[in-house]
Amino acid sequence: MDDLFPETRERLSLSSGAVLLGGFARAEAQALLHAVEIITQQAPFRHYRVAGGGRMAAAMTACGDYGWVSDGQGYRYVRTDPLTGRPWPALPSLFLALAGRAARAAGYEGFVPQCGLINRYAPGAGMGLHQDRDERIMEAPVVSVSLGLSAFFQWGGAQRQDTCRKVLLHHGDVVVWGGPSRSHFHGVLPVRSAQTGTGLECRYNLTFRVVD
Ligand SMILES: O=C(O)CCC(=O)C(=O)O
User: Fold this and answer.
1) Does the C-beta of 181 come closer than 6 Å to ligand 1?
2) 6-45+58-63+91-209 CATH fold
3) Predicted TM-score of the model (pTM)
4) How far is the CA of 191 from the centre of ligand 1 (A)?
5) How far is the CA of 202 from the centre of ligand 1 (A)?
6) DSSP letter string over 143-156?
7) Ligand 1 contacts CB of residue 119 (under 6 A)
């Protein structure tokens, strides 16, 4: 099934340890977007290069003690923004509180992220199937918040060739994955434009992570 009726999306298990919390962040979406705007004044969006030389379709930035970067030296977390030479902007308390609440709702107590990665997807941009494995601590979950345009999230298994489930993520949805699902493959299909509702012309995704 590609999409789900609202009443079944409030808490939808994707696999053991992974759950969609439909609309969990909707009430605070405007405040989250405002925080993103302030962060990106200090650490602007940029397109990283990936292994092989291509450009990532999603523009990225980060906040917190660490940001994820990709360059000629590979994929990794660093404490200083290579674009500005300054530390990443602090994680706003709003982000910390939401991440902790969402993790708890998904069954993960005591989640305190060190990093908030921010992806911006213009229409046509997506993210290929991948695992999140650059964090040195894999015990903590990843908390992922969707804002703006809707997009199909691909949720796979521990192996790249495992069958993927497609779930449409809307403005204010949160997905949490950890435990047995922490290394599952996932991706985002190219975002389509011309949607109504939020007035935003792109999709934002915030992921909160523990790095070390
Ligand atoms: O945009 C999303 O929903 C997922 C982002 C993602 O997979 C990542 O940042 O690793």
Assistant:
1) no
2) Jelly Rolls (2.60.120)
3) 0.95
4) 13
5) 14
6) EEEEEES-EEEEE-
7) yes
